[in-house]
Amino acid sequence: MLDAINDFLSGKVLIPLVLGLGSYFTIRSKFVQFRYFAHMVSVLHCSWHTGNHHLSSFQALTLSLAGRVGTGNIVGVGIAVSMGGPGAVFWMWMTALLGMSSSFFECALGQLYKRCDGNGLYRGGPSWYIQHGLGKRWLGMIAALLLLVTFGFAINGLESHAVSHSLNDAFALSTTWSGLALSLMLGMVFIGGIKRIAAVSDLLVPLKVLAYIGVTSYVIVLQFDQVPAILMTIVKSAFGLDQAFGGLVGSAIIMGVRRGVFSNEAGLGSAPNVASVAKIEHPVAQGVVQAFSVFIDTFIICTCTALLILLSGFYTPGFEGDGIALAQHSLAAVVGEWGRMFISIVLALFVFTAMLYNYYLGENSLRFIFGEPRKTLFAYRVFVLGLVFWGSVEDLSTVLAFADITMTLLALVNLIAMALLFKVGMRILRDYDEQRRAGIKTPVFDSSKFRDLDLDFMAWPARTNSPDVLTHPENLPGNAPSPKPI
Fold this sequence. Notes:
By secondary structure, this protein is an all-alpha fold. It has one domain (2-445): Amino acid/polyamine transporter I, CATH 1.20.1740. 72% of the residues lie in helices and 1% in strands. It has 20 helices and 2 strands. It has helices spanning 2-28, 32-35, 37-46, 57-68, 75-84, 87-112, 126-134, 137-171, 175-190, 193-222, 227-238, 249-264, 271-275, 283-311, 323-335, 338-370, 374-393, 397-420, 422-437, 467-471, and strands at 115-116, 122-123. It has a two-stranded antiparallel ribbon with strand order 1-2. Helix 6 (87-112) packs across helix 11 (227-238) and helix 6 runs antiparallel to helix 14 (283-311).
């Protein structure tokens, strides 16, 4: 029953909405993800670190990649290729191209409506821009609850199961001991809050990404002469032009789009929560950075996994097995038995950082619902750690269908909110475009130009050189009204 509900919501509702709105956002923004592609790197370079107690744009990127780059980049790609054939990879690419614009707008909105938490940090996400942008706190509460249940609870238990059993297969490690070790390491990071989570992600995310790209690139280079033919097979089979995969066109589209959406998370409402923590000069700058993270997730890492599988010679049409086994056997077929162990180690790194990300999404949701609930946060941490241990030793496959449903409902709430706030997103994008055309390399957001919006003037102070400030001195820093309680 859960599978039937999930298939209907994701196949008949979510995917058309994601692709439809992604196309609309892309066209109306004049293809912002292409216009600003080169600018993405320069924005990231200029905001590597803030130099103070705030989090930087780069740290927000690593936090985002901690969640985007997870089991979906190995397991999800393996499932997509095994069930949809090579053509599924092409549709993952197309989904990511459109998803870059969706991620751009949701993360820019998350930055725009963020709030200072009183501890020198910022918090934001779908719940915040639903409340302060649409004036509907009740809908923001629903989004927060769906986020908490999906990422804070269900997905953490599922990912714990995946990594503990992968380590058991590769190294014969007891799932009990690996689950206990994983819980203890996560607990030490949770205690430090978002700053420690960001610091650990800052270290581990580049490490895991570079290590995985390095090894898969080695496999690709060894068989580089076959790469053009494989790429041609991906494109042909996406449209049913390859005889070997002609009967998988429908599956290729469905699996490619579905796995693409759930891998890069564009439009799902999760990434804006971590995008909002960065201290930057303009909300659009973080939208640009987060669009780049979608590119890294799908066009680089997912493509590496796909080429690894298709070049190995291990994969055959109709392969039966899970995504982990397919990736492990594919790498082992080229480099030897250590390939299976490498996939397990990388998967453990992927899952560990993804769990930090998932935990923070749940914590952020609790803070939206309750404010600063110390006792509730302590209980939440204990419950998550217990769930991680339980998931490592028990099969929680039934939870997967439930998690997919709650994630789909979250995405629907977020996408509707994005559509309603799209005019606001376009206003701040035009402001950014105008400053760039005027030759300003680092555009600055002046909240005095947006006095009709419910913004936190502590997060976005008015600029004293703005003509509007002369007639509206209440917009000056220090004269601004106190942010509305959330």
